Amino acid sequence: MNLKRVLYAFSFVMLFASMVNAQENKSEREKYNFNYGWKLNVGAAEEAIKPEFDDQKWTAVNLPFAWNQAEAFKNDITHLSTGIAWYRKTFQLPKDSNDKKVFIEFEGVRQMGEVYLNGTFIGRHENGVMAFGFDLTPYVKPFPQENVIAVKTDNDWKYKEKVSGSGFQWNNNNFNANYGGLPKNVFLHVKSKVYQTLPLFSTLGTTGTYVYATDFNIADKKAVINVSSQVKNELSKAVNAKLKVTVVDMKGKEVASFLGDSFVINPNEKKDLKASKALDNLNFWSWGYGYLYTVSSEVLLGNKAVDKVNIQTGFRKTKFEKGMVYLNDRVIQMKGYAQRTSNEWPSVGMSVPAWMSDYSNSLMIKSNGNLVRWMHVTPWKQDVESCDRVGLIQAMPAGDAEKDVTGRQWEQRTELMRDAIIYNKNNPSILFYESGNESISEEHMKEMVEIRNTYDPYGGRAIGSREMLDSKVAEYGGEMLYINKSAKLPFWATEYSRDEGLRKYWDEFTPPYHKNGTGGTTHSNVNGSKVADASAYNRNQDTHAIENVERWYDYWEMRPGTGERVSSGGVNIIFSDSNTHYRGQENYRRSGEVDPMRIPKDNYYAHQVIWDGWVDTEKPQAHIVGHWNYEKEVTKDITVISTANEVELFVNKESLGKGIQSKRFLFTFKNVQFKPGTIKAVGYDKSGKQVCETEIRTAGKPYALKLTTIERPGGTLANANDLAIVQVEVVDDKGNRCPTALNMIDFEVKGQGTFVGGIAQGPDNYIGASSLPVEGGVNRIMVRSTETEGEIKIKATSDSLKGDAITVKTIKTDLGKLSVNLPNENLPSFTEKGPTPTTPSFKRTRLPIKIIEVKTNSNQEDAYKSYDDNELTEWSNGSGSAKIEYELTREANVNQVVLKLAGWRSKKYPIRILIDNKNVFEGVTPTSLGYVTLEFSPTKGKKVQIELIGDAKNSDVINLVEITGKVDEAGLKKGNTKVPQLPIVEVEFYEPIQ
């Protein structure tokens, strides 16, 4: 039986059991899903605060629901609708809630939310990012009376904080897509008067429960599990309280139960209660291994439990040193994506059910990515928890745009970081806290470190910022476009490979025949400046995949194991096409490895190949770029991406020989003539043994449509908010997808569901259209369930093709206004990659030789800067000769010189290298994202001389322009222009391993 079906069936059984159990034990429930039964009005409605206000004509919605979400991908980010919207809900408290505390928790509002209960103003939240909550106890009416909550929202791009008059730096219309209103989940908490607080600091002043592990012994699977929970006593008398902690594994088995010490808590006092115990036989959370435990902490007064909090978390060990990141005692090179925090989908924006967050985020893992860097605000809790489940490492920002700030805007950033750390400190997938999308001052970095140390001292997370290359305070760094190396801090690129391309564009030989570079020449930067030619960013799938491989090569070449100074990797911008700033003909960003419906592009498969493994590539793979369904007489270059040492190509079993290898992973076969049949790539290791192969077959003529679904594990919920993804393919008479098909498809949806739609190139990007084309033979739409259990019947037709139909069954769920079924309940973890391997992290590829002295007749005082492990300093010759000599610690068999030369992306330097006066290299340095490796025959010596032998030449091979319109000079400084300059940022010398 199919394992996935077994898991889905198990999830359904667990869901049904949890529903029954929750209904039977409703009186014990402390946290309720408050998403159901809201009314929405777009526009001013100040009278809505009054309980007696008639909202019958308002639109019924279930949260999460952004009032303008239908515009996602239809409108340019700068044209997303803004303004006032009201949300309103009538509800009763549970029967047994008298004399209890009642809190409401919003996972977020955009941009501002004012909350009213029964006509009384409760509070306001304005940062547009972080969760917040209020104590409703003084204002709520007891059962069976009805309560009316009203929320006024305002998502104006220029919204100003009421007290200070300051705007929010991150309310930014180039990256922070503006889905207004209540686009995230809402919960209601009913607690006793002695209770564990909520982690909602800015509005409640409380820090919640903190679960963390210490004293790790990874090999023996041991650690000490610690729980520290802030408990407040709102009784009129002092109480003697202690914590009881229970740890349950993913199979539902209790693995530990332990008590903390007793403490007296006075009336209205808050006190941290603690408990800890050493546990063994633990499963540690890891990359692609989202192993989570449920840690329950109960407050005991005597032997009676009066309050319980369940926290799903994982345990893992981290270390950040020697330029590397360690996870569970193993080095892991960062390979992943810089993804917009909105993580949006067509027509629904960010407000998707939790399982779709899992689906999207798990695709990053399946592409062999291990890190997502969210840009540039804290992700909502649903995505944070999703990354826990799928085993995806996160870099969590607070809020930023493009620069350091001062005054009230800096205070807003520190407050947001504080709140985000408190709210997310139990989520194991967060390994990095990002203090800025640009470098910040050392004083500001110290403030951020202090916030981390205060609220998350034991979480095993590095805090840093983009850049910060010479910071004495930051714990990691890395530039946006380039490669950095360090012997101390981990440096990973926060964004690289930012080119764009539609999934529709295979190449210039396939309809619609998109030649690389066409489109987008009217592009504007976010500051309004014009780019005369943005064609360098606009690609088809062929060249986009190749570009991604070429850009990654620089990071791979300087990976851990290649010396004392290494790169910790980098993140490609972006993972899925995004409704944000763009550089092409379409009104959205198309840099993704998947399109907005998460259909993979060739880039996706390229990463699967080159990112396989923790540091080194571990499993040989190959991917043929493109398809094999061309028109007659087409001749084109074929590219194979592979981790094999050699690749041979076969067309209809006829060998075309071995490919030309470049950038380690690219194998090019020139002028391959299309012949219907098969094209196969076979990879070989150094000994000539076959280690991998892949094949593409020519599909026949379009014959029929084929529908399949992607659904919530356990089944689609009948809650008027769950979505099912329906994939349509154009196939031949044997069921093979036709990769060049562009047929228009007509959809019809009946039964207990409504049509939502998908996306394609065309008018309004076909958003909301019930007829839209396939691209590359495939496309997807979404359908939404109703609140009635039943069937959704989807039918697809197309002229001259055999149609298809499919049915989605929806299952009953608790739709109560205080629902006992939480949005992420019973979603399975992704554990396919297994626990952290116990094998060595990497294999050393070369030996570094240290420098003990340097001599030059020009700027001798700066000569040490050429090897000081600080990429913000450099030596250049000034007015003297461009010659410098290094003395090594010992006589070595040098075969490589690694250089970072200022202007690395745009300058080519003619140089000569001598070892003990013997000429070993004479040539021109290539452009790169930072470092170049100059290789020659191993030569024994102790002194290495580097000399500039001509003028540097300009190159535009790597065309990089920031969204601000700034052209980065890559370390070039203004100086003497009359004398040829040799600006060395860093130099390293290596010998081969014997």
Describe the protein:
This protein has 994 residues and is mainly β. The protein is 11% helix and 36% strand. The strands form 13 sheets. Strands 29-28-27-26-25-31-30 form a 7-stranded parallel β-sheet. Helix 5 packs parallel to helix 6. The longest helix is centred in the N-terminal third of the chain and has 22 residues, at 3-24. Residues 1-22 form the signal peptide. This is Sugar-binding domain-containing protein. InterPro entries: Beta-gal/glucu_dom_sf, Beta-mannosidase-like_N2, DUF4982, Galactose-bd-like_sf, GH, GH2_Domain-Containing, Glyco_hydro2_dom5, Ig-like_fold. Residues 215-316 form the Glycoside hydrolase family 2 immunoglobulin-like beta-sandwich domain.
**Helical percentage:** 10-25%
Low-confidence stretches: 1-27
Oligomer: single chain
Overall average residue pLDDT: 94
Spatial order of strands in the largest sheet: 29-28-27-26-25-31-30
Assign the structural class, choosing from mainly alpha, mainly beta, alpha/beta, alpha+beta, or little secondary structure.
Answer: mainly beta
Gyration radius from CA atoms, angstroms: 29 Å
The geometry reads as: globular
Number of helices: 8
| Percentage of β-strand residues | 35-45%
What can be said about the biggest beta sheet? 7 strands, parallel
Total E-strand runs:
57
**Euclidean distance between termini CA atoms:** 52 Å
Characteristics:
994 residues; mainly beta; 7-stranded parallel β-sheet; 8 helices; 57 strands; globular; disordered N terminus; Ig-like_GH2; hydrolase; GH2_Domain-Containing
